[in-house]
Automatic annotation (TrEMBL):
PANTHER family: REVERSE TRANSCRIPTASE DOMAIN-CONTAINING PROTEIN (PTHR24559:SF444), TRANSPOSON TY3-I GAG-POL POLYPROTEIN (PTHR24559)
Organism: Mucuna pruriens (Velvet bean)
Protein's name according to its UniProt entry: Reverse transcriptase domain-containing protein
Domain Reverse transcriptase, chain residue ranges per copy: 155-264
């Protein structure tokens, strides 16, 4: 049975937002309606660009543009468990948000609801808080109060995350080891060709075991919701994801492929 309650109306899919690109990159599209953008180099010859887009169009099913494009990893292959120590559940109360952050949370909740990543819930023993933090990318040079030029990171958006610290304190820890980045670099050093792939919303491709989904409940001004897929912030999420990827690509590791979380080389 599907544990998610049925709602009378489903929220509409938020429009796709294209971010500004540096001068050496540009957007190209895999469809005539310009709904499937990809980022390519700006200095490709016309023939090179056409060949690249032809390959990408042939493998469109491997590319995701929004969360609803993600079928997720079959739960029979792998799913995330949240095993608890003997600790009393904690229900936290929501915090006030200013109008700007309120709009950010509303858009994110709508996006996740449309994709089926979260669902409304009202009877969870565990309730965590939603937080909105600045998301910074890129650098600029600015003068400080002493008229000195210093590098500053640019904030261009906000990121919604869940404060799972209380839940993590009560969670039995998974000690699966993560690879050392320097050792991975040594393994790929000296190769003649490299291909770098980045998994799209990698964590959210892993389902949470139905009996553990209620533990991921968070509260916000728009209600209380629980995750069907693995969100950021859970203490054992990195171990779960790395173990899953190593299991899936076990026949390629150490031969022609290295995996660190959602980065594939």
């Amino acid at each position: 049975m599907d544990p998610r309650p049925k709602t009378e109306q489903s929220p509409s899919q938020p429009p796709m937002e294209l971010k500004p690109l540096p001068n050496h990159l540009k957007y190209a599209y895999l469809d005539s309606e310009q709904q499937l953008p990809v980022i390519i180099a700006n200095n490709l010859l016309l023939e090179q660009e056409e060949k690249l887009l032809k390959v990408l169009r042939q493998h469109r099913k491997a590319i995701g543009w929004k969360l609803s494009d993600l079928p997720g990893i079959n739960p029979s292959i792998y799913k995330h468990r949240i095993l608890m120590e003997d600790i009393k559940p904690i229900r936290q109360q929501q915090r006030r948000l200013n109008p700007t952050l309120l709009d950010v949370v509303k858009k994110e909740v709508t996006r996740l609801l449309v994709a089926g990543i979260i669902y409304p819930i009202s009877d969870s023993q565990w309730v965590s808080l939603v937080q909105v933090v600045p998301k910074k990318s890129g650098m600029t040079i600015m003068k400080n109060q002493y008229d000195e030029l210093i590098p500053m990171r640019i904030q261009n958006s906000w990121q919604v995350c869940i404060d799972y610290r209380r839940l993590n304190q009560a969670t039995r820890k998974d000690h699966f080891p993560l690879p050392f980045i320097d050792q991975m670099l040594e393994k790929i050093a000296g190769k003649s060709h490299y291909c770098f792939l980045d998994g799209f919303s990698g964590y959210m491709q892993i389902h949470i075991a139905p009996e553990d989904q209620h533990k991921t409940t968070f509260t916000c001004p728009f209600g209380t919701f629980a995750y069907t897929r693995m969100p950021f912030g859970l203490c054992n999420a990195p171990s779960t994801f790395q173990r899953c990827m190593m299991s899936i690509f076990s026949d390629l590791l150490q031969d022609c492929m290295e995996v660190f979380m959602d980065d594939f080389t």
